[in-house]
Amino acid sequence: MKKTMTTTAGNPISDNQNSITAGERGPVLMQDYQLIEKLAHQNRERIPERVVHANGSAAYGKLVITEDISKYTKAKVLQKSEETKLLLRFSTVAGERGAADAERDVRGFALKFYTKEGNWDLVGNNTPVFFVRDAYKFPDFIHTQKRHPQTNLRSNTAAWDFWSLSPESLHQVTILMSNRGLPKSYRHINGYGSHTYSLINEKNERFWVKFHFKTMQGIETITDKEAEEIVGKDRESNQRDLFENINQGNYPKWSFEIQIMTEEEALACSFNPFDLTKVWPHSDYPMIKVGELTLNENPKNYFNEVEQASFSPSNVVAGIGFSPDKMLQARIFSYPDAHRYRVGTHYEMLPVNRPIVDVKTYHADGAMNYDQKDISDAYYEPNSFDGPVEDKAFEEPALKIEDTYAKRYDHRESNDDFSQPRALFNLMNENEKEQLFGNIARAMDGVPLNIINRQLELFGKIDKAYKMGVKKALGI
């Protein structure tokens, strides 16, 4: 029985040979998180506070699917009657660890679902939109929310200077400055995936989707004056409220709902449906009930289970995918990279981040690698020793981008790998060829015969004399 290779999140890999490019000879796309994962892990094979969303609270719970949406997705986690354990972390965006909870700010709403197909992370906010639509501007925006480099004080001037020069921020600024910018508690906010994602069904049809979690406690907010009074008495007001309510058995709940847009509808849409500063009008794309989310368990150790909890939109399962959203594309890279820096190279080995499925990768060594793998000769890929392999069954449909497709193009299919080595071989005189044959034979000392024979066949495709010369030098 073959073993399917996976990402560190336990998600099966369909192709471990070819990166995703825009066209056969086009550039590599940032959404190729499997490529990024491999390169980033390699860079760290030889460990601070989150840059944003540093101050947060979390709880475990469950997602129960009550409706049938199988016509949109094959993801097992979204099939009717499925029940999945989850971790939900709430946070403020700008404040450092220890900052007051009752501040006017966007609230993070980050979910980790421990599914039977690997982890699915949905990293969103309590708002359906954001301040910028291109990640190129994200570091600039966050600088305005942090402290002035000289005074070390938060600067209203910096925030409003940036916003006044960035009209795309108007939607989010209006929400932030409304009563929803100061929630009464984490229990009284909605959660949104915010980005546009893909749902893919058994027919390999793609639908664009928006994820919504509507609080069943109702939206409740406080005023600036009320917030000042709360902060003066309790800087951890939201943390206290969440922990105590769950501890008392008053489990908060959210209604899980989605919006769906077909690929044809997206092409005809009057605005860019992948723009993070825009919402999809409910009148055009109505809400569809999916299930219910409940929080029912407090973490036992804050540092282990909340501070080290690491969420990334790159963690998806079969049946859930990405979109051309520029901010999402960048977050696919930046979140795991931040975790590797902040927590450690093998952060997904930690219990709070570890998927409930077997993880089968070829990542090696590096900080925090406490996994004891079976001794094997299969520590690279491809190999001849029954190591984990790719599985084309998990390949997504190609994504059309104008007049080309984003997919994993087979780099061997249209390439001639023999004529140039043949030309080089033919330039060699007889003495040089004999040296070549001998060098190869000595380098093959101890190599199994089946591997030697496979290599000889490749040499034969260059030139029969090449194959026979090595064979003779090997004495076979």
Automatic annotation (TrEMBL):
Annotated residues for binding of heme: Y335
Catalytic activity: 2 H2O2 = O2 + 2 H2O
The keyword Aminoacyl-tRNA synthetase is annotated on this UniProt entry: no
Keywords from the UniProt entry: Heme, Hydrogen peroxide, Iron, Metal-binding, Oxidoreductase, Peroxidase
Pfam assignment, any one: Catalase
The UniProt record lists the keyword Zinc: no
PROSITE patterns membership: CATALASE_1, CATALASE_3
Entry GO MF terms: catalase activity; heme binding; metal ion binding
GO biological process: hydrogen peroxide catabolic process; response to hydrogen peroxide
Comp. bias (Polar residues): 1-21
EC main group: oxidoreductase
Alphabetized InterPro entries for the sequence: Catalase, Catalase_3, Catalase_clade1/3, Catalase_core, Catalase_haem_BS, Catalase_immune_responsive, Catalase_sf
Enzyme Commission (EC) number: 1.11.1.6
Cofactor (UniProt): heme
SMART domains per UniProt: Catalase (SM01060)
Active site, UniProt feature: H53, N125
Domain of life: Bacteria
GO CC, any one term: cytoplasm
Protein name as it appears in the record: catalase
Source organism per UniProt: Malaciobacter marinus
